[in-house]
UniProtKB/TrEMBL annotation:
It holds the Pfam family BD-FAE. Residues 74-260 form the BD-FAE-like domain. It comes from the Bacteria. Signal peptide: none annotated. The lineage of its organism: Bacteria, Pseudomonadati, Pseudomonadota, Gammaproteobacteria, Alteromonadales. InterPro entries: AB_hydrolase_fold (IPR029058), BD-FAE-like_dom (IPR049492), GDXG_lipolytic_enzyme (IPR050300). Keywords: Hydrolase. This is Alpha/beta hydrolase. One of its GO terms (molecular function) is hydrolase activity.
Length: 316
């Protein structure tokens, strides 16, 4: 009997390890940790409420993909009092490609959902588990999963916005601009109508991006860990991962929301030039004296939500 109990315990332990939901990864990058780091220089910041309003339907840990040792899941939010098919907004969290979870964008997600959208926030494999293009592959799979399950959540997939913050902004832009051009991974079945890039890189290969993302004083950077090499060892991969290189006449209307730290939105001005040349709508909402991660905290979060909502309603 004792041996049977031990066997059962071992089986449960193995299964729980095998099917760990990916939110267990990257927990060192949390609202609380960022708050503690920023409060000294920005004493006015406040943590937002993460209590989901009663008027919002919330679906947590919705599994969309199984990978080697666990599953990938997403959170989905939509207005409770609406039965109509609503535009889809997919939000991609940041964390230097190596940390973070969908929980970071919880308040932004349900706040945007309250404005008449279905909002999904998928997890993806971090660089500590799998290098580029694994995360892009995961996010494309998430988009395709949402397409397949659109009836279940009353989603209008003809209206799609991709929103990403920091590393998530770079990945959202790559998916939004590439539209079937990616050769190293699978591609989404649906086309983005809107991109909102919050402090995410447009080009890994600009001088300011390389100064930080390929810093010679560091053995490895967050970007080189994700891309699997330093720039000089594989410049083509850094080029391939730069959203700016995929901008074309079918690229979506784009809103850039940025802090005062230029390194995080490297390539923005050139991207705007390329988009405007093609007649594609671009807008910039710039916060003065705001830190990276401003969108996670008050007093900047309310204005971030307002800017996103206004752009979404104009473009979708």
């Amino acid at each position: 009997m004792r041996n049977s109990n031990r066997l059962i315990h071992c089986i449960i332990l193995i299964l729980s390890t095998f099917f760990v939901v990916s939110s267990a990864y990257g927990k060192e990058y949390t609202l609380q940790n960022r708050y503690k780091k920023l409060i000294k220089d920005y004493p006015q910041i406040q943590l937002p409420s993460q209590t989901i309003p009663r008027e919002i339907l919330s679906y947590q840990d919705v599994v969309y993909k199984k990978v080697t040792y666990h599953v990938l899941a997403m959170s989905i939010y939509r207005p409770k009092n609406s039965t109509a098919s609503l535009p889809l907004v997919v939000m991609i969290h940041g964390g230097g490609w190596q940390s973070g979870t969908p929980e970071l964008l919880k308040t932004l997600a349900f706040s945007i959902a309250a404005q008449g959208f279905v909002v999904a926030v998928p997890a993806y494999r971090l660089s500590t588990e799998a290098q580029y293009p694994a995360a892009i592959n995961d996010l494309a799979t998430a988009l395709n999963w949402l397409t397949t399950h659109k009836a279940q959540y009353n989603i209008d997939t003809s209206k799609l916005a991709l929103i990403g913050s920091s590393a998530g902004g770079q990945m959202a832009a790559l998916l939004a601009y590439s539209q079937g051009q990616l050769k190293e991974t699978n591609n989404p079945l649906i086309k983005a109508n809107v991109l909102i890039n919050i402090d995410g890189l447009s080009d890994f290969t600009t001088p300011i991006a390389l100064r930080y993302e390929n810093d010679p004083s560091k053995k490895i950077t967050s970007a080189s860990a994700w891309l699997g090499s330093r720039y000089e060892d594989n410049p083509q991969r850094w080029h391939n991962a730069s959203p700016i290189n995929y901008i074309n006449a079918s690229s979506p209307a784009t809103l850039f929301i940025n802090s005062s730290a230029k390194r995080f939105y490297a390539g923005r001005e050139k991207a705007i030039q390329k988009l405007n040349f093609l007649g594609i709508t671009t807008e910039v909402y710039q916060f003065k004296d705001a830190p990276h991660c401003f969108w996670l905290f008050q007093p900047w979060q309310t204005d971030t939500i307002k800017a996103m909502t206004l752009f979404l309603k104009k473009q979708l």
